[in-house]
Design a protein that fits this description.
Layout (H helix, E strand, L loop, with lengths): L1 H13 L3 H15 L3 H10 L11 E4 L9 H21 L7 E6 L5 H14 L3 E4 L6 H10 L4 E5 L8 E8 L11 E2 L4 H10 L15 E2 L3 H11 L9 H5 L3 E4 L6 H10 L5 E3 L25 H10 L3 E5 L6 E7 L2 E4 L2 H14 L7 E5 L5 H8 L3 E5 L3 H4 L5 E6 L3 E3 L10 H17 L4 H12 L1 E10 L5 H11 L4 E2 L2 E8 L13 E5 L4 E6 L5 E10 L6 H23 L2
Parallel strand pairs: 2-3, 2-4, 3-7, 8-9, 8-10, 13-14, 13-15
Antiparallel strand pairs: 1-5, 4-5, 5-6, 10-11, 11-12, 15-16, 17-22, 18-19, 19-20, 20-21, 21-22
């Protein structure tokens, strides 16, 4: 205990922020006074440094090395600055690195961005700070537009309000292949992490008080203009777009203004934003969890859609890199699964892409339907590991997606998921369908007729004790189920040994004789084990309804089997 108390005292002494210094002092004093809760809290805060990995940093805001705070961010910025210096030196490049820095409206985001700019400037690099709170895709766009060697986005995306994060992109002269402007992957993460670990103390990190540049609105204007152009020339379609009624919610995030600007620039004038969720608010007061996938998150948007007679609902997560879509199916507003939107966008983009070397890509846990779409259109298809850090690196990609509502519809602009550009393309699709007297529900049935019914779902087990996660995976690996939904399992693959040409990753792939598939893996951002389920049922004749019903029945059986296997 004495060592823990000494570490806490040293951290307080080194902490540059009055608020977190006072917070940790209170915890320390309570622990010394004999509070068991305070001691447990202190142990958790000093359980290690918040781990820097392929998602950068992400964690709960608070004092101590295992939290998101200015001290941790300054160390991370110093490690990244050192990495950039070393990387350019190894390339024989003289002069500073260029670093674009963005931030959302979460608690602490602006301060963390300013600390990053101060560290980069003092390290001799050129720091370019976005003009205000903006979506993550704008930072990813700016990293490429400005030919930056690195980009930093301060955001925790759709995490709870008590969290924040630090996402890193590499490009410019540091990364020049298909990953230019994409999120970091190994070995970049480990190289940066090693330099963060070498920072002895915050007090040892020089920080400038000026010298960085705050960019003007031009970078935002460029993003809006270039995304709006993805929909093509406005004049020929202005009438049908103006006749399309859209309900939009940014879920208290930073995407509302940008999405509205893009939609209006593309000719969508009938846009209704949910007033209660329109302005950025780091406490996300109207939702339990600021993720459009979560139950109840888009209830206000659906209510507004009902009252105004909307044609479509579009919801973005708080940093607007994800896009959710809801439409009326069988008389009720229904939010579409990410795989459904991915297939709709994939079909739309594939149908306008010349056959040949172009590629559609999605993560291995996403639906297999995109592969069928690619084959039908004479395009290549690539599966990747989970996450856009991998999807965004796919060579010759024209479209990529992951089932968790992430879509890359314009890789030349943003080498990451972009909920703003995806919103525009879905709005245009709805507009075109409406002009022909049809809906997204009809388009979904079109996919089924062409490729069969691909039904996907997910089962998750959440753990309070993180040690239970590897134990669960080990148990499943050693004793996988013999049947899935009544069909014999014909393939069991340990994905850590590599799977379908992918690098090894912790996961278990199961395939049944019926075509049902399950992939089980630990979550990369939450204390969960996730199982991704898929059922494929061909459509006989034109009876889409029968195929959907058969798929739903099989999926219920599959969910039950997986729930038992996970022990939940």
């Amino acid at each position: 205990m004495e060592e823990l108390l000494a570490r806490a005292e040293a951290w307080i002494e080194d902490d540059p922020d009055d608020v977190t210094r006072e917070e940790l002092t209170g915890v320390l004093e309570a622990a010394v006074a004999g509070s068991a809760d305070a001691l447990a809290d202190l142990e958790d805060r000093f359980a290690g440094f918040l781990e820097f990995g392929t998602a950068g940093l992400r964690g709960r805001i608070g004092a101590g090395p295992n939290r998101m705070n200015r001290a941790v961010v300054i160390r991370a910025a110093a490690g990244l600055a050192r990495y950039l210096t070393d990387a350019l030196a190894e390339l024989g490049v003289e002069g500073p690195a260029r670093v674009a820095i963005g931030y959302d409206a979460r608690h602490g985001s602006h301060a963390f961005a300013l600390d990053t700019a101060a560290v980069m400037t003092a390290a001799g690099h050129e720091a370019l700070l976005l003009p205000r709170t903006l979506p993550t895709p704008v930072l990813a766009f700016a990293t490429r537009l400005l030919d930056a060697d690195a980009g930093v986005m301060v955001t925790a995306s759709h995490n709870p309000p008590q969290d924040n994060g630090y996402k890193v992109y590499l490009g410019g002269r540091v990364v020049t292949d298909e990953g230019q402007g994409a999120q970091i992957v190994p070995p970049y993460d480990a190289a940066i992490a090693s330099r963060i670990a070498a920072v002895p103390a915050v007090a040892a990190v020089p920080r400038a008080t000026e010298g960085w540049r705050v960019l003007g609105e031009g970078v935002v204007d460029d993003y809006v203009a270039q995304v709006a152009e993805l929909g093509g020339e406005v004049a020929p379609v202005a009438e049908r777009r103006a006749a399309t009624r859209i309900v939009l919610t940014p879920l208290h995030g930073v995407g509302g203004e940008t999405v509205e600007r893009v939609l209006r620039a593309a000719g969508f004038t009938d846009v209704h934003t949910v007033a209660e969720q329109a302005e950025p608010d780091p406490d996300f007061p109207t939702v339990d969890f600021p993720n459009p996938e979560e139950k109840g998150a888009i209830d206000l948007a659906l209510a507004l859609a009902t009252s105004v007679g909307a044609d479509v609902v579009i919801a973005n997560d708080p940093d607007a890199d994800r896009c959710a879509v809801a439409t009326v199916i069988d008389g009720s507003w229904t939010m579409l699964h990410g795989d459904v939107v991915g297939s709709l966008l994939g079909e739309r983009i594939a149908s306008s892409t010349p056959a040949g070397a172009h590629v559609l890509a999605n993560s291995i846990v996403s639906s297999q339907q995109l592969g069928a779409i690619a084959e039908a259109h004479g395009l290549g298809h690539a599966n990747t590991l989970t996450g856009f850090k991998w999807i965004g690196r796919t060579p010759r990609m024209v479209f990529g997606y992951e089932e968790a509502l992430g879509y890359c519809v314009a890789p030349d602009l943003v080498r990451d998921k972009d909920g703003v550009s995806a919103a525009l393309l879905m709005a245009d699709f709805v507009s075109e369908l409406k002009a022909g007297g049809r809906t997204l529900a009809d388009a979904i049935d079109d996919l089924a007729r062409a490729y069969g019914v691909y039904l996907t779902s997910q089962v998750s087990a959440r753990y309070a004790d993180l040690a239970e996660i590897p134990a669960t995976m080990s148990r499943l690996m050693s004793a996988p189920p013999a049947t899935l939904a009544g069909s014999p399992v014909v393939a069991t693959d340990d994905m850590s040994e590599g799977f379908r040409g992918l690098p090894g990753t912790t996961g278990l792939h199961l395939a049944a004789e019926s075509g049902a598939r399950v992939i089980v893996r630990p979550s990369g951002t939450e204390p969960k084990v996730k199982a991704y389920l898929e059922v494929i049922v061909p459509v006989e004749g034109d009876d889409v309804a029968a195929a959907k019903a058969a798929a739903a029945t099989t999926m219920e059986l599959l969910r039950a089997d997986v729930t038992v296997a996970l022990g939940i």
